[in-house]
Amino acid sequence: MVTEIILIGIPTTRATGGRLFFIFLLAYLVTILGNMLIIILILVDYRLHSPMYFFLSNLSFSDILTTTCVVPKMLACFLSEKKSISFGECFAQLYFYFLSGCTEFILSAVMSYDCYVAICSPLLYPMIMTSSLCVHLVIFSWVGSFLLILPSTILKAVLPFCGPNEIDHFFCDSAPLLHLACADIRAIELLDFLSSFVLLTGSLSLTVISYVYIISTILKIPSGQGQRKAFATCASHFTTGSMGYGISIFVYVRPSQKSSLHLSKILFILSSVITPLLNPFIFSLRNETMRDALKDTLAKGQDFIRG
After folding, report:
1. For residues 256 and 294, which has the higher predicted lDDT (pLDDT)?
2. DSSP state at residue 48
3. Dihedral class, residue 50 (left if φ above 0, else alpha if ψ from -120 to 50, else beta)
4. Cα separation, 153 vs 78, whole angstroms
5. Cα(29)–Cα(216) distance, integer angstroms
6. pLDDT tens digits for range 274-304
7. Helices (DSSP H) in the chain: which residue ranges?
8. How many other C-beta atoms are found inside a 10 Å radius of the C-beta of residue 140?
9. Contact 262/56 with Cβ under 8 angstroms?
10. How far is CA 213 from CA 29, 45, 52, in A?
11. pLDDT in tens, 84-117
12. What is the pLDDT of residues 13-36, one digit of tens each?
């Protein structure tokens, strides 16, 4: 029986592994620091105590979890002769990676609804987006993701794995891991497809409908300055959401995920490393309130050091 998984998708040469180690280490540190900075700013600055930034702080935490699930193990494998991961560690990585990924998509739909209420019904916004509703929506995002992926993960864990034990990937992804099982996996593949289809198309439908109403409302604003200000409110969320949906629908919403493995590895790097890395810059540089909060916090920090 298989007790460990060999990740042959990770380069084996020492020179290549060393260069990739420093590139991914830098990307990981910037991702963690950038997303932690967003969370801290939202906690300490009163201007960011609103539903949109509350959802954004959870999105940043989800990005930290996504990256931490895969990058530290990749870094260890870059410098190790044996690119292996234990069977239990493999399933833990698989579960928490998809938990954070599913949560991000539900949060994305929640944030699009928040933008819709803010732009289309600004006078009713405080009555609709109450603190209680926001907390319940975030709890639903995490608990819903937990319940959505739990059945499939349990079914995979009880499959017989009797060899081979090599995965041509950077981490324990669902599709290549499934094809190591010594059993019929069609039912689990179908369950994965249905779960991905329901999650992605459901959250995408809500997001698209929200943005159709948002854009139609913005176009009715008479002044160009008013249109730009309204669009800036949701532009960052629209940018990151488009990237996430495009990549995930291509990779996971397929009845059989065995084909296009090399392309899937590239898209995995984009979704689990590049997107969490870019999100802090997209949300901070394109958001005037976030920029002002960052400047004030840095100024207070400098005054504290001098004093």
Report:
1. 294
2. G
3. beta
4. 27
5. 40
6. 888 888 877 766 677 788 888 887 787 776 6
7. 14-44, 51-78, 87-120, 125-128, 131-157, 174-178, 186-219, 224-252, 261-269, 275-285, 288-306
8. 14
9. no
10. 38, 31, 18
11. 888 888 889 999 999 998 998 899 899 889 988 9
12. 777 778 888 988 999 999 999 999
Q: Can you tell me the distance from the alpha carbon of 270 to that of 66, in angstroms, rounded to the nearest whole number?
A: 12
Adjacent-strand bridge partners of 4: 86
Using CA atoms, how far residue 207 sits from 28, 111, 136, 221, 227, in Å, is: 29, 8, 19, 21, 20
What does DSSP say about strands 166-167 and 84-86: parallel, antiparallel, or unpaired? unpaired
The single-letter DSSP state of residue 274 is I
d(CA 126, CA 214): 18
**What is the full DSSP assignment across 167-179?**
ESSSS--HHHHHT
Find tokens 């400098």 and name the residue. Answer: 302
Q: Which two tokens stand for residue 101?
A: 């990924």
